[in-house]
Design brief:
With 447 residues, this protein is α+β, with helices and mostly antiparallel strands. The protein is 18% helix and 31% strand.
Length: 447
């Protein structure tokens, strides 16, 4: 997820020492003469500034805003330039420094901390609507169907090399657009829904507006004539967005839209269990009972005592094995069994199964806590009564890692299971796992 820093600090450092003279003084004729001189000076300087900065700009107009001293005391001049590509810029040229400082007009349209307009905001007619200047940028990101209606500057990346904007589209969608400060834009536009609840939040569109295109995707699928519920699931690096829909006929699907907003795939919920957390608006898998005895025997043979009361198969391409979630009549914690057509199978509890890519729906994660507590006790960690657990990771050698938190608020632990073993081989403290998979994440006391 993006981390941003405020533009205000950077602008204060770079521009606070500049004096912006009042050009329009005296009568109208004098003001016009000053404006003309400012444009002439701007048009003369702008080509070299654009080339030196690497800014993607085909010059259409420019003006010199003012002169003064930079923060380091050197003479400097500020210019505004307008470009045929749409987005305009403010450029500060400092004596003896070959590369100018560049901020685009949307950035400079942001009011100051006191709420007053930025004195360096763009004023050329071509730059009057900075949001419109982002139209070409958004199209270049692959979202050509977005007709930009509003935009606002959010901040800079922490390394100050990229800027982050929010845009709202006419169809209700919203995007967070990231692009290089200078040089070729190479922009990336991500669905606003992917940032819900984060520090980078969209305010120009609502969640309801951002979900409006889902109805059209459902119609385009040909499988959901009437949609009753929908939700955003996730976005991927290729620009695809995934949505879950529940239909009036009781069926459910994952809909994939590509970066242009068009329907790319329609995936029945029964086959979508590995997309996000799978379908949640419909019952994706039908519970069966006719093979209860078979799976009871297979689970017991694998070392997991479960009197199967119901089960559901996970769809998968290997026809020589069954991957099945099981609910147990003799215990609250269910499990996922992987049973080949020949040889021994393996059963994973409903936390560890998530390391393997399979999430239980018959029993909650909390049903596993008692079993994890006993496993910790067998490894000399009897003081920890498990109050939380999550899948921590799966290694190349087939080992699974499960993080647990303790009811007493202890520092947290990670159980490590070798491939095809029911019991953990070892238990590590969270401090030892700090560099693996982002480290522990469950609430705990600081060590």
């Amino acid at each position: 997820m993006l981390k941003i820093s405020s533009l205000g600090v950077a602008v204060a450092i770079l521009f606070s020492a500049f004096a912006v003279p009042a050009f329009a003084q005296g009568d109208a004729a004098a003001a016009a003469a000053v404006a003309a001189a400012a444009k002439a000076a701007g048009m003369k300087a702008a080509p070299a500034l654009i080339q030196a900065s690497g800014t993607p700009c085909t010059l259409t107009d420019a003006r010199q805003i003012g002169t003064g001293k930079a923060a380091d005391g050197k003479p400097a001049t500020i210019y505004e330039v307008a470009c045929s590509e749409g987005l305009g810029y403010i450029m500060a040229s400092e004596a003896g420094v070959p590369k100018p400082v560049v901020y685009d007009c949307l950035m400079m349209a942001k009011p100051g901390a006191d709420g007053k307009p930025n004195p360096l905001m763009c004023r050329l007619p071509e730059n009057a609507n900075p949001a419109a200047g982002l139209q070409a940028i958004v199209a270049l990101s692959g979202h050509a169907s977005c007709q930009v209606t509003q935009a606002r500057f959010l901040g800079l990346t922490q390394d100050q090399t990229k800027k982050i904007d929010e845009v709202a589209c006419a169809d209700g969608q919203g995007f967070v657009v990231t692009m290089a400060m200078t040089g070729p834009p190479a922009p990336q536009a991500d669905n606003c829904l992917a940032y819900a609840g984060s520090a980078v939040s969209c305010t120009l569109t609502t969640q309801a507006q951002e979900l409006q295109p889902v109805a059209a995707l459902a119609q385009a699928s040909g499988k959901c004539a009437s949609m009753t519920k929908d939700r955003y699931v996730l976005s991927t690096q290729d620009g695809s967005d995934y949505y879950e829909v529940a239909c009036a006929d009781g069926k459910g699907y994952m809909l994939q839209s590509d970066k242009t907003g068009k329907l790319a795939d329609t995936i029945p919920c029964a086959q979508a269990y590995q997309i996000g957390n799978g379908c949640q608006l419909t019952d994706a898998r039908q519970a069966e009972t006719q093979q209860n005895g078979v799976y009871t025997g297979l689970a017991k043979k694998a070392g997991f005592d479960c009197q199967v009361s119901k089960y559901a198969l996970f769809p998968q391409s290997d026809q020589k094995r069954d991957i099945v979630e099981m609910a147990c009549a003799n215990r609250p914690d269910g499990a996922v069994g992987i049973f080949p057509s020949s040889g021994a199978g393996m059963v994973y509890d409903c936390i560890r199964s998530q390391d393997e890519g399979f999430k239980c729906t018959f029993s909650p994660d909390s049903a596993v806590y008692a079993r994890l507590t006993q496993q910790l006790k067998s490894k000399g960690q009897g003081a920890c009564v498990v109050s939380g657990a999550r899948p921590f990771g799966h290694s190349d050698d087939g080992s699974d890692f499960v993080e647990v938190s303790c009811a007493d608020g202890g520092t947290g632990l990670v159980l490590i299971y070798s491939a095809n073993k029911q019991e953990p081989d070892q238990v590590s403290g969270c401090g030892q796992m700090a560099t693996i998979n982002g480290g522990c994440q469950l609430p705990r006391k600081k060590s």
